[in-house]
TrEMBL record:
Name this polypeptide is given: DeoR family transcriptional regulator
Positions with biased composition (Basic and acidic residues): 65-75
Domain of life from the UniProt record: Bacteria
Transmembrane segment boundaries: none
Region (Disordered): 57-85
Length: 85
């Protein structure tokens, strides 16, 4: 992982979305679903998703769309959690 990516904190939308995914999100996460749930533009959703993919917090399915792969369903992300803290 790029050191520059690892040093950045997750934004609030990303923390909320990851917590939602860890709490048992059903189905695949697409940029349009992300935008609707996070109440943001599709461009912002795509940027957030790309960042989460770079960090290894989301994985991409074979069809090209992002798909969540939770590392630990018991772990929730709190404010300021940048490097898994």
């Amino acid at each position: 992982m790029d050191a520059q990516v690892a040093d950045r904190s997750l934004n609030e939308r990303q923390r909320r979305m990851l917590n939602r995914l860890l709490d048992g999100f059903e189905g695949k996460l697409t940029s349009s679903k992300y935008a609707k749930l996070a109440k943001c533009s599709s461009d912002t959703a795509l940027r957030d998703i790309r960042d989460l993919l770079e960090r290894g917090l989301l994985s991409q399915n074979e069809g090209g769309g992002p798909e969540h792969e939770p590392p630990d369903r018991g772990r929730r992300l709190s404010g300021g959690a940048g490097r898994g803290g």
